[in-house]
Design brief:
Distance between the termini of chain B: 26 Å
Structural class of chain A: alpha/beta
Number of domains of chain A: 1
Structural class of chain B: mainly alpha
Largest interface: A-B, 81 and 81 residues
Strand content of chain B: 5-15%
Largest sheet of chain B: 3 strands, parallel
Oligomer: heterodimer
Radius of gyration of chain B: 21 Å
Largest sheet of chain A: 5 strands, mixed
Amino acid sequence: MSAGDIAMRNMQDGLAVPTFDDPAWVDPVPLAEATVAIVTSAALHPAGRDEFTAGDTSYRVLDAAERNLVLGHWSPNFDRSGVKLDLNVVYPIDRLDELAADGTIGAVAPHHLSFAGNQPDDVATIRHDTGPAAAAALKAEGVDVAILTPV
Amino acid sequence: MCVLAHVLEAAGIATVVLASSRSVAERMAAPRVLYCEFPLGRPLGHPGDAEFQHDVLRRAFALLESDGPVLADHPEVIEGIEEGMSCQLPPRFDAEAPPAVDEARGIRKAWERAVEARGHTDVGRILDGADGVADALAMFDRIANGAHWKDDETIPGGNTIAVCHDIRTYYEEAALELSDGPPPAGRAMEAWFHEQTEAGKTVMAARAAIKDQEGPFPVWFYMAPAHR
């Protein structure tokens, strides 16, 4: 592992994290019937608009057809070259399209969501406000399964 | 990500997390987790490798078959590397300009080609394109050479983090055009920027100067990755 990744993972090992008593559990529908959405913490936003501020706790709604996306994350502590070479390395939207085409998944959701990964340690706003709003938005579009990709 | 997994699950959406920290995922007990020891910033592993990305997704979606909470490990570890990528920089052209400014002007055409190829640029959090990057490097050069960071009123938006983001991004986008080698491994481009370019050295020198001038921690610390 590179020195930078070791430093970050060591930091995360010591991070206090919120706990969830009695966590919810969903029995999923069969994957071949599921509508799948991506939820990423890469702070992706459409080029030229909807930028993330530092410490932004809100989320962006990404149209499934949109590829002109900018990484709006404020942390300097991760590789940024991979996503410049291939958006799918953080946001596997073309892969989902392929899985829908071959019938592995039921459908690709019409919209996907992007949060910023650099957050206050208690993550309270996402837990109690923007997260539930995001979940309701996905649910309203018939999303059954979400794949969560971190940055 | 694990917080959102719990929140989404409570709303009736089944989740699978591709975790980048095993410790956090374990302690937060997200319902279904595939831990991937890949370079941070590359949760699907390899850019440009659809087959590998499908392998990650296949293993992730397989966790939906589990009857209860599950944390699995992707069997492959992808190492980032310490060495900077190989990427040629332009020779000195304008001896009057600070080296970093001269260099930034020298890679302008490469950056413009990269923007053309991608259809957009990630530069622009605070700086205006190539000219904005050159001006910001001139400003950091003055600070590195003794000007007080507070006296220099040209730190755009007073936001060193955004300025450094745009400078590094300008270089990384240009490097995609300048390099003819294989795609860089995780952090290889970061190492190239900070260790081989005049811009990277100038940013680090300005960062050290602001720290020495007792500038606030967030003003200088986040100008570069934490381990630097």
